[in-house]
Amino acid sequence: MEQLSLLEQSRRDDPSCDDRTHVARLAERVINELQEDPPIDLGMVASYQGVAAIRSCQLPNAGCLIIEPDRGRVEIRLRAGDSPRRQRFTGFHEVTHTFMPGYRLTIQWRCDPGPRGLAKRELEQLCDVGASELLLPRRAFLADLRGAQFGM
Fold first, then answer.
1. Please, which residues bridge with residue 78 across strands?
2. Cα 74 vs. chain centroid, distance in angstroms?
3. Whole-angstrom Cα distance, residue 102 to residue 44?
4. Average pLDDT, the chain
């Protein structure tokens, strides 16, 4: 019997939510379980999600999540030419792939240069939601936002 992914478990626990809400909740749960405050440590979150290593290397795209077929070791690879901020977002994007069903079945590429179908685009958008939530956790900024005056 195959184990459910975090997203599938969340869907089962609360079928009334859309996937964006589920992903945001999962990111929040990981941060809470790690007792992390911003800035969230990418390496810690990745390790918690079973990622063995994060490497910067020459890539044609922003990043990828690799699973070694023989050992099942999970690794994030980030494009060496990207800024540290961009690499951080991409790293959290790749971490969010670990929430998704079947992520161990294929290499996950960020900014895949080829044509993509609707399902792939939606998956990548969900991973962007997770990356955003991990970079700027909602709970850390809600009080500030509530107290801020409307305007630019």
1. 56, 63
2. 14
3. 22
4. 89
